[in-house]
Amino acid sequence: MADGATSRSGAKDYLQALVSRLFRRGRTNRKQKEWSPQTITWVQAGVAAAMVVCVALMFPGADSVDTFNLREGDVYIGDQIIAPFTFAINKSPQEYAADVEAAKRRVPPVFVRRADVTNQQLSALESFLEQLYDVWSAPGSAVQKSDSLSGLFRRFNIVMTDNDISFFLERKPPLRRTRLPLKANGEVGTARLLSMVREVVTEALKVGVLDTEKDRLPTGAEKISVVSDGVETIEQLAYYRGPREAQNFALEKIRQQAADDAQMTKVAFQIAIRFLQPNVFLDAAETQARVAAEVASVPRAKGMVLQGERIIDSHEKVTAHHVEVLASLAEARAEQGSHTLVTLALRFLGRMLLAAVALGVVALFLYRERRSLLFDPRQLLLLALVVLLVVAVAYGVNRLSLSSNLIPVAVAAMLLTIFFDARAAFISIVGLGLILGGMRGNDFAVVATAVVVGSVAIFSVTKVQKRNWVVRSMLMTSLAYAVCITVLGLLRDAPFSALVKEWAYGLTNGIVSPLMAYGLVVVLELAFEITTDMTYLELSDLNNPLLRELALVAPGTYHHSIMVGNLAEAAAEVIGANGLLVRVGAYYHDIGKMEKPDYFVENQRGGRNPQDRLSPTMSALVLLNHVRRGVEMAKEHGLPVEIRDCIEQHHGTSVMAYFYEKAKGQNGGNAVREDEFRYPGPKPQTKETALLMLADAVEAASRSLRDPSVSRLRALVSQIIDDRFRAGELDESPLTLRDLNKVGEAFLKILIGRYHHRVEYPKSEGQDAASQEARR
Predict the structure, then answer these.
(1) Which residue of 157, 494, 547, 694 lies most exposed, with the fewest beta carbons within 10 A?
(2) CA angle 516–534–648, rounded 5-degree value
């Protein structure tokens, strides 16, 4: 287990180093990464310009925009469409491809018959047969004849085994030399061998042997064009034999003539195939040229639409013919308009304006409601990257002519919610939906689906505080896709088969999107150093090594931190702050006390307090050091910046009143510098750090109450909140007076639960007697 944990840790470190190398140069603290106003302005302008241009470039061409709107089975709602000019109705890609294939099949392959090759093979065969007769009939021993026959076969490249050669040694040669008829005068056996070889080869070459197998011909035609002596004729392909077919013909013919003599069949076949060479050759270049010419002659159009002819009327059901005519009209418009640079520029300008309007809506919302996101280059770049990621996938979907329900809108919704918040994510999805609708030919269905599915996806990840959020998002997103597809299908009167197909796409997208979002969160979190609730969830595990060390070294501080976390989280929930962040921040806010745990009262046992031997100034330094050391330990353990802020700001610039008053008492009433007893700050900058400051003070003070009644707890909470407010410690936090009232009530509810009274359980008679006896 230890080795496995080490391996996982090493892999994580490697991934962090790799991502850091790709996206940034090492870890730096927040102060070092602050951007100047000029730099932020340049980044904002660059991101806006890049997004507008990239989105405009990913819009489809004008030849396909109009086709996205209408599908077969839809009801066209709009003005009557009249042909503005005469144009051709183009074939669909499938129809054109089928016509091209038919054109290819119409072209017969071109072959050239070589008479010189035929004569050469027959002449070689006759020469071989004469020499075979001479060797075979020559006097001599069997060994001499065997050597002579082997040499003859080698010269003519005929493969013969020793067993085959023994055939000639064991049988008499024919009486006459050549041209012997079959079954002639007792010479049947050997005379037949020579005759049937000559007959088979001659017949095969006379018909023609192709140099290519028939199933490998480029066009697969049933006829071929044969050029012989300059004359070209079209003949049936079946009349000719390919190399394999010619050998099968020779073997079958020899078997018929050799009757049951298997050895003669084998020897004759070995000789025949040597001279059975192709004499009809494929002219591949001429064939390809004729195929190309035939393909070029295939017409792209299959009809015409005259100027002024009605294409489709309002509220008319869209047919496949309508779709083809509208697509052809769009292509004709593109061809007419593409000849002018001005037209192209205006078309691209229109796309840029659409992108600018959609993104401008998002920018306007961020400027009014999430200005911190708009002015943080890292967050702005992350938002732009997520939007462009979805737009790029939509571009691929368009290019492949796939369903719009495969566009991962839910991934963007989940990522933006997890990294930022639900409101920023929703307005971004609205802008993204407008862009996607434009990319799909101003399709209202795409915009509606993006907004509905995106909203459900946002809702599914609003609180990522449990690990089952992936499964929950899968179910909710898939259900959202199913509802949208069903509603839009019913409005369009779509056939059931089309609905089933779109359901499959939507369910697939709904299942895959949360998995993609989970993986991207891990990578983007490391790349942009933006902490999400998923990281806080991991840090909230009390088995974290740092928290376990805190429990062992400083058990009092550990339990104090747990109680502060409960108080702060309860308060965060009533004012809309991040409860998970403030709870995790509370767990780690006092880790600096582990360096000198005995100097803090919650860890002291038996009444021994090392602070009694120190001067007030030294005690103040010890308290100050736990904040500084806590920040250092947080950096060493790689805790997020937000947690380090909790550690650094949980005391703000408050005064260590006990030691300050003690110092004044020891100084005989003389003035004591208050700054020496004040924490360096900074003051709480967020709701979460402000809640942590208040919860920390309330929890510590509540322990000093001897009789923690409800009225005393209420007074204590009110006094602490009032003191911090009057001291200006909350001036830099966004907490309002209404928030402070709610926070006080939330604190009080938790404290009452903690200090509630229990009834005294009645004792039995035996226990009373034992007690009385013990008292005697």
Answers:
(1) 157
(2) 140
| Polymer length of the chain | 776
Structure-block tokens of residue 473: 């998002």
- How confident is the prediction for the chain on average, in pLDDT? 82
Q: What is the pTM of this model?
A: 0.57
The structure tokens listed for 226 are: 């044969």
Buried b / exposed e along 308-343 (16+ C-beta atoms within 10 A):
eeebbeeebebeeebbbbbbbbbbbbbeeeeeeeee
Which tokens sit at 23?
């996206």
Number of alpha carbons in the 13 Å side-chain half-sphere of residue 542:
8
pLDDT digits (tens, 9 = 90+) for 369-420: 888 888 888 888 899 999 999 999 998 888 777 888 999 999 999 999 988 8
Task: Give the position of tokens 């997520």.
Answer: 386
Give dist(CA 481, CA 509) in Å, integer: 8
- CA separation (Å) from 728 to 564, 655, 682, 695, 757? 22, 12, 12, 17, 36
Cα dihedral 314, 320, 323, 324, rounded to 10, equals -130
Contacts of 517 (CB under 8 A, 6+ apart): 410, 411, 414, 415, 418, 461, 473
> So what's the pLDDT on residue 772?
45
Are 503 and 488 contacting, i.e. CB atoms less than 8 angstroms apart?
A: no
Question: Could you give the percent of the chain with pLDDT greater than 70?
Answer: 86
Distance CA 281, CA 301 (A): 37
List pLDDT tens digits, range 127-155: 888 888 888 888 878 888 888 888 989 99
Angstrom distance (rounded) from CA 427 to CA 558: 42
- Strands 223-228 and 110-113, sheet pairing: parallel
More confident residue, 770 or 331: 331
DSSP type of residue 592: G
Residue 61 has a pLDDT of 60
pLDDT of residue 514: 92
In whole angstroms, what is the distance from residue 133 CA to residue 142 CA?
15
Q: What is the DSSP letter of 210?
A: B
730-735: which pairs have CB atoms within 8 A and are 24 or more residues apart? 730/683, 730/684, 730/690, 730/693, 731/683, 732/682, 732/683, 732/684, 732/685, 733/683, 733/684, 733/685, 733/686, 733/687, 733/689, 733/690, 734/686, 734/687, 735/575, 735/687, 735/690, 735/691
State how far the Cα of 481 lies from the Cα of 445, in Å rounded to an integer. Answer: 12
Could you tell me the two tokens for 130? 């004469």
pLDDT of residue 576: 86
Q: Taking 80 as the threshold, does the pLDDT of residue 35 lie above it?
A: no
**Residue 540: closest CA among 498, 508, 583, 499:** 583
pLDDT band at 587 (very low <50, low <70, confident <90, very high): very high
Query: Rounded to whole angstroms, how far apart are CA atoms 353 and 265?
Result: 85
Which is higher by pLDDT, 609 or 585? Answer: 585
- Of these ranges, 25-29, 75-79, 521-525, the one predicted with the greatest mean pLDDT is 521-525
Phi, psi of 223 (to 5 degrees): -120, 155
All residues at 6 or more sequence positions from 479 whose CB lies less than 8 Å from its CB, including other chains: 456, 510
